[in-house]
Every structure is written in structure tokens, then in C-alpha cells.
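Thread: Plastocyanin, structure

OP (GT): Posting the sequence first so everyone is looking at the same thing. Length is 135 residues per the record. Can we get the C-alpha cells written out before standup tomorrow? I want them in the notebook alongside the other entries.
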Amino acid sequence: MKRRAFLATGGAAFAGGCLGVGAGGSGYDVGMTSMSFEPETLSVPVGTTVVWRNTNSRAHTVTAYEDRIPEAAEYFATGGFDGEAEARERWFADGGGNLYGGETFSYTVEVPGTYEYFCVPHEGGGMVGRIEATE
């Protein structure tokens, strides 16, 4: 299923790039459009549980770059994979780790620093994101 769909509502909230998109009552912090995470960068205090929601009809993943998260941080990826290579292999093998429209994924940021992540099928199109966690 590779059709495009755009949300008729919510675009203005994303355009502001404000902290805590979920604070507006949407129930999530980072949305997934057809080819981007919105907001692309999210700043949060350590201890925050970040929630991603696929706000699009295309399947997406949330996959940490293993070498671009703090050394002491736990790896994260939709599908519960233990590392980036496994997440990529499983997605290419059988779509492992996909989030479909309306589904969510959450991760608690427990170590200060920068966490960079991407969507496996849309990485080449620039679907990357970042969390900046501070104490």
C-alpha cells in the first residue's frame, strides 16, 4: 500500500515546530507525515516518554542510529529490535517494525544528549529526526 494521503487538519500545529505537539491534546509528541517527522527536532528533559504517532497512511518506522545516541542510552526501534542492523534487515525482509496509520511508539529518554533516528523505508528521502534531552 503505497498511496499518499495528507491530513486536512493538524498541519498548522506541526508547522510551528513547538515543543510537545502532544501538549495540544493530540496524545503524541512527534507525528509522521508522508516523508517527515514533525517536529524534526524535539527538546525534552531527561525522564520524558516521547510518543510518535503515524499520522499518515504510509507505513513508517522509528529507528535509532545506533552510533548517534548517547553511549549509555538504551537502543530503540519500532519492532523491538536490538540494533540498527537488525531493524534494517527485518524491514527489508518482511516490513518488520512498521507502524501503520494511527499506531504509536514510545520511548523514555533516560540519558541526556542527542538521539538521532530515521524511518527505514524513507531515510533516503530525508525522513530523519532528533531528540535533544537535557537534565
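GT: Both are above now. Quick notes for whoever picks this up: Helices lie at 11-15, 84-94. The CA atoms of residues 60 and 103 lie 10 Å apart.
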